[in-house]
Amino acid sequence: MLHDTKAWSAECSRVEQVKVPVTSDADILLARKRARKLASEANFTAVESTFIATAISELGRNILQHAGEGEVSIKIDQQEDGTVLIVVARDNGPGISDLERALKDGFSTSGGLGLGLPGVRRLMDEFEIVSHQNYGTTVIAKKWARGYTSGRLRKTSKASFMRRNGAAAGKLAAVGSVTR
What's this model's pTM, rounded to 2 decimal places? Predict the structure, then answer.
């Protein structure tokens, strides 16, 4: 899938949210580039941008490997206590049967190192995952710009996860862009 770089650059300059359908490795690279552009415009540091891009790579690889396709949304949000970049990765794949195990280092269903989801959780400041068999998985990960100090930063590394019934998982997947 080819993407027009000039159009992409102009789009990132105008909006504070982008959505990238993920159907190939090229789409993951595009999502990383768009996230770096948004992060740069919002004064995130180079290190923070690298963490965000790495998290998007891991989430995108999970989408391709386990669901075949999905979407990554990236949004900048200005809140009272600072600027946050929000990544929402979602798919309609088979879901994760054991979230607790999937979030432990070393657990892998694909023969990999098992660092994907636990790595994303460590790289980002906030992390939430909801998955249900036959309804897919939605991950919401947030990174706060360190240039904006706030009391909220002392409460980072919050992680929550749950399995929900199909109706609740479907509602979260539909609402995915609501991340507050």
Answer: 0.74
Map out the domains of the chain as residue ranges.
Answer: 14-175
Report the CATH number of the 14-175 domain: 3.30.565.10
CA distance 173 to 180: 15
Q: Please give the order of strands across the beta sheet that includes 70-79.
A: 17-22, 70-79, 82-91, 136-144, 126-132, 158-163
pLDDT in tens, 102-153: 887 665 555 443 358 988 999 999 999 999 888 999 999 999 998 554 454 4
Give residue-wise pLDDT tens across range 33-47: 999 999 999 999 999
Which of 140, 141, 133, 121 is CA-nearest to residue 164?
133
